Amino acid sequence: MRMAMVGLGKMGGNMVRRMRRGGVEVVGYDRAGDVVAQLAKETGMIAAGSVEDAVSKLSAPRIVWLMLPSGDPTEQQIRALAPLLGKGDIIVDGGNSNYHDSQRRGAWLAERGIGFMDSGTSGGIWGLENGYCLMVGASDAVAQTMTPILQALAPAADRGWAHVGPVGSGHFTKMIHNGIEYGMMQSLAEGLDLLKGKQEFNLDLAQITELWRHSSVVRSWLLDLTAEALKGDQELASIAPFVPDSGEGRWTVIESVDQGVAAPVLTLALQMRFNSQNQTGYGYRLLSTMRNAFGGHAVKQAGER
Question: Is 170 domain-assigned?
Fold first, then answer.
């Protein structure tokens, strides 16, 4: 099976690597030509010099998977791709788009006979080795066509991916997933901040987080990553207590307002990120460290503006 990947950054590049390991033929394009050349040399990916070139190297049904920033970059690429594709072809948005945008784009493409799949993609920089968690929104026909690719990307053919519903539902599910992620990270950061603040006990946070990893109710992958980070530097003095927020956290809170469903933990976790952008504190250093550990997100260094 052959498909094209547009956007070969941290996520897109590793997804190509995993698909190649799974036997999927991939045509790859990125605006950074050196990235394309390196990935082609490393994995056997078929290099493309443009989106048009990538599409020309595909056969029906032509599948183009986008791993681009949400908003205008994804919108413009879909608009540019549509005239190059035809009935039965498929565009996949694997980025973190707003689910309303995905519903609109899916309807617009359907009018042209082009299939669309929104894939909420989790796994971060660890997805290459561990597999990706894929939350898929699409028609039954599109999901069936995409199954071999999803199986190659997932931890195993029978788990780690699911067709959760129609177009838009994949990105909606990922949005809520990320809102929950905010709350989990915030609770860990607050608890560890309290432990650190109890100076009379002089607690070893590396020891305690490692302890909690084994048979504790709060054990989790986020805790695993936090424990590993604290082994190297418990003070985190080189990391600025500045935690960026992404669209999904804000969209989750807006959704709670639209539905009239109370979500105080998720809302306050988002508000605390806003607060971090103007404050100092150990808990914020922990949050920033966790984001870097699971997603490779940039860390603002202490003293950096």
Answer: no
Please tell me whether the overall predicted TM-score, pTM, comes out greater than 0.85 for this model. yes
DSSP 45: P
At residue 305, the pLDDT reads 57
Is 10 labeled as catalytic in the residue annotation? no
Q: Which residue range is the domain that position 119 belongs to?
A: 2-165
Q: How many domains does the chain have?
A: 2
Catalytic residue among 174, 190, 198, 248: 174
Sheet containing 161-165: order of strands: 46-47, 25-29, 2-6, 63-66, 90-93, 115-122, 133-137, 161-165
Alpha carbon separation from 207 to 68, 204, 210, 286 (Å, rounded): 39, 5, 5, 16
Query: Does residue 222 form part of some domain?
Result: yes
Cβ burial of 224 (10 Å; 0-12, 13-18, 19+) is middle
Q: Helix, strand, or coil here: 50?
A: coil
Amino acid (one-letter) located at 221: W
301 part of a folded domain: no
Q: Is 300 a catalytic residue?
A: no
Strand duo 133-137 + 161-165: pairing? parallel
Q: Residues 28, 46: contact at Cβ < 8 Å?
A: yes
pLDDT single digits (tens) 46-76: 999 999 999 999 999 999 999 999 999 999 9
* Three-state DSSP string of 249-278: HHHHHHHHHHHCCCCHHHHHHHHHHHHHCC
CA 94 to CA 66: how far, in whole Å?
6
**Residue pLDDT, tens place only, 189-206:** 999 999 999 999 999 999
Is residue 305 a part of any domain in this protein?
Answer: no
Look up residue 263 and give its two tokens. 């979500």
Q: Which of 181, 190, 210, 235 is catalytic?
A: 181
Contact yes or no for 2/23 (Cβ under 8 A) = no
